[in-house]
Design goal:
It contains 8 helices and 23 strands. It is an alpha+beta fold. It has 3 domains: 70 residues, Jelly Rolls, CATH 2.60.120.1030; 172 residues, Rossmann fold, CATH 3.40.50; 123 residues, Elongation Factor Tu (Ef-tu), domain 3.
């Protein structure tokens, strides 16, 4: 395999799909020291900055669309490293990371988590980004207790999750706050940690976004807010009101801007990850509690919403679907994304509704979850068994 000789204080930006291996020297990714001769995978649509602490030799390979590029210096701004290092010296911190889409906030959050772990502090990573989630399926939020520094936070899965119901908090803001409260309650009862790292979504402009972020701050009570790029007066006023130490940081030197299609592909990778090892289960409808993501639980209304979603999909694709969900499943290997709850009403994961018949009192759900399902909550997204996002619409559209 080809190798790249990286001099000290230079950065090798690796764009996925790719993999690298440190053969000699010392290098890091976002504060995570790379182990010698261990393969590091950079996933499709992602990039990782490999910074040489010493002269290093790096073996690399990449697939279609992957590449490497050497850059002088460190692509991570000094202000980032200084801010998280200063916070790591505190006995206790709750740090919220904020920025617009493609600002680098998840990289900054990862750097923060790794810095805390390198300082031998305990750390829990909280992912509140329902659209570009790193540790849980899109439409959900979650947290994970971190044991070791990581070059990519998506290497781990959330240990506890809560469903929200859509890939943006905008149309489901109240549900997002409610689920965040449940997540915080679960976390507080399970762990006493020195550091919380909270990665929020990129919706930060406009009155609705400001109110949403204010409510999240009320829930998690951050001690620090690190925001990338220009902030606004309202955010700073909220931080002043809540006695939050707010720091405005510059964007990284290199940011891999993602198109809407690339962001969709990243979501699809996460759907696929959380649908692996799924099987189709046939369950009597009367055995379950059925709800729509907005709270509607009348069975005839839910049946109507299912039909309305399939009709909207067919019109969008310019096709005719006469046999409902079963035809959708046969033709596209797809179903309606659902959130599943166990007998204790604990959110357990996602599934795809592939058949629904009131006449037969039966439904079919494609899911990796094997235990008893107590409640099934439908969303307004159509996803394939491979994770492809075929269609989505705002949840309120199906209620009209």
């Amino acid at each position: 395999m080809p190798v790249h000789q990286l001099r000290a204080e230079k950065t090798l930006v690796v764009n996925g799909p790719a993999s690298i291996k440190l053969l000699e020297g010392k290098a890091s990714i976002l504060g995570c020291i790379l182990p010698a001769k261990k393969q590091i995978v950079v996933k499709n649509w992602r990039s990782r900055p490999v910074y040489a602490i010493e002269d290093s030799i790096i073996e690399y390979t990449f697939g279609e669309g992957g590449s490497i590029e050497e850059v002088d210096g460190n692509t991570i701004p000094d202000q980032w490293s200084k801010a998280v290092q200063e916070i790591s010296e505190s006995d206790y911190s709750i740090v919220m990371f904020m920025g617009s889409s493609d600002s680098g906030k998840t990289s900054l959050a990862t750097l923060g988590a790794n810095t805390f772990l390198n300082a031998k502090k305990t750390c829990v990573y909280v992912d509140l980004d329902v659209g570009q989630s790193s540790i849980c399926p899109p439409t959900t939020i979650g947290y994970v207790y971190l044991k070791n520094p990581l070059p990519d936070i998506s290497y781990v899965k959330a240990e506890t999750m809560e469903a929200v119901g859509y890939t943006s908090p905008m149309p489901v803001m109240a549900k997002h706050i409610e689920s965040s409260q449940k997540l915080h309650s679960s976390l507080s009862s399970k762990y006493v940690v020195q550091n919380l790292v909270i990665d929020v979504d990129g919706w930060i402009n406009g009155e609705g976004a400001i109110n949403h972020k204010k409510e999240l701050m009320k829930v998690f009570k951050p001690t620090h807010l690190l925001i990338i790029g220009d902030t606004n007066r309202e955010i700073e006023d909220i931080c002043k009101e809540f006695s939050i130490d707010v720091r405005r940081l510059p964007p990284p030197i290199m940011v891999r801007k993602r198109s809407l299609e690339a962001r969709k592909k990243l979501r699809e990778m996460m759907y696929e990850k959380f649908l692996r090892k799924s099987v189709t289960r046939t369950i009597p409808i009367s055995w379950l509690e059925l709800k729509y993501v907005t709270g509607e639980n009348r069975i005839h209304r839910i049946a109507s919403m299912i039909n309305k979603l399939i009709t909207a999909f067919a019109e969008d694709k310019g096709v005719v679907i006469e046999e409902g969900l079963e035809e959708l499943c046969r033709t596209y290997r797809a179903g309606i994304l659902c959130h599943l709850y166990d007998v204790n009403y604990t959110f357990t994961g996602i599934g795809l509704l592939t058949m629904f018949s009131l006449k037969k009192n039966l439904l079919k759900i494609y899911t990796p979850f094997q235990s008893q399902i107590k409640q099934l909550v439908l969303t307004s997204l159509i996803i394939t068994a491979e994770g492809s996002e075929l269609f989505s619409t705002s949840p309120q559209v199906l209620e009209s």
